[in-house]
Amino acid sequence: MTALFALATSLLWGLADFGGGLLTRRTPALTVVVVSQIMAAAVLGVIVIATGGWSEAGAQLWYAVAAGVVGPVAMLCFYKALALGPMGVVSPLGSLGVAVPVSVGLIAGERPGLLQFAGVAVAVAGIVMAGGPQLRGAPVQRRAILLTLVAAFGFGAVMSLIAEASTTVTGLFLALFVQRVTNTVVGGGALYVSVRRGGRALPEEGASAVRAALPALAFVGLADVAANGTYSMAAHHGPVTVAAVLASLYPVVTALAARGFLGERLRGVQAAGAGLALVGTVLLATG
Predict the structure, then answer these.
(1) How far is it, in rounded angstroms, from Cα 34 to Cα 86?
(2) Number of alpha carbons in the 13 Å side-chain half-sphere of residue 25
(3) Phi/psi of residue 70, each to 5°?
(4) Which of 41, 134, 144, 175 shows the greatest Cβ crowding within 10 Å of its Cβ?
């Protein structure tokens, strides 16, 4: 069950990243984050009311609040790093956030077998390579590397925090709702500051373009929510070290989605990374 839920997480995060990347080509990134999270929060609010999730309220929800604060900050750092580029360096470094939940699992006393340790090493190498690492070319700004590492730590921290925010299914719905409301507040604040400093909240086509993109924005927000949920279930059903690595295969999904929907050719290093990730997945699932 751990492998199944974790691989579902990778699929959902990968598709959400692909959809979000397409949307940010025309719409400001912060607007994409805020609108998608508002829509996700609205759906989750209905689910919480329908399932009686409010009865699960407790101190553990502070983990969800923390995840809701860290998530938008990490995303903003990642977008800024992508803007500084080169993407061939930023994207693979961003996937190193898997080290956070893996470290948490090891500190908590998890001791994967030899085959699983090999699977972790192979899968992480595949994840980094699937991002298409740029090994030569233009120099990388130190600020871009720093922002990417902050983002990676944030992404990994969100995985660890949301796994601690609930122990039941109804509690998970409530935790995800709280996380999304916090995401909206933090992201909305960042968007307000950006606009005050001269940034844009709407694409050049105006509000009509955002309205036209609402189905895609809803998909991105709900896919991200579902991914957090399946990861939490994966972490509770088995070793966090295994769940975290398998859930972090989303760069492979994003690269394959770009190949399938946009016709983008995979670089040799990306194809090799996808293959290594698959080998690592088999080792982790059978170890």
Answers:
(1) 26
(2) 6
(3) -70, -40
(4) 175
- Is residue 40 within 8 Å of residue 72, measured between CB atoms? no
CB atoms within 10 A of CB 187: 26
Count of CB atoms within 10 A of residue 155's CB?
Answer: 24
- The model's pTM is 0.83
Residue 65: half-sphere exposure toward Cβ, Cα within 13 Å = 6
Longest dimension (CA), the chain: 55
- In the 8-state DSSP scheme, what is residue 207? H
The model's pLDDT over 213-271, given as tens digits with 9 standing for 90+, comes to 999 999 999 999 999 999 999 988 888 888 888 888 887 787 788 778 878 776 777 77
Contact 39, 218 (CB under 8 A): yes
Q: Closest Cα partner for 287 from 113, 105, 110, 111?
A: 113
Let me know: does 102 contact 262? Beta carbons within 8 Å.
no
User: What does the DSSP 8-state code read for residue 24?
Assistant: T
- State the DSSP code for 248: T
SS (H, E, C) 56-111: HCCCCHHHHHHHHHHHHHHHHHHHHHHHHCCHHHHHHHHHHHHHHHHHHHHHCCCC
On the CB side of 43, CA atoms within 13 Å amount to 16
Cβ-based burial of 29 (10 A; exposed 0-12, middle 13-18, buried ≥19): buried
Distances (CA, A) of 235 to 105, 238, 245: 10, 6, 11
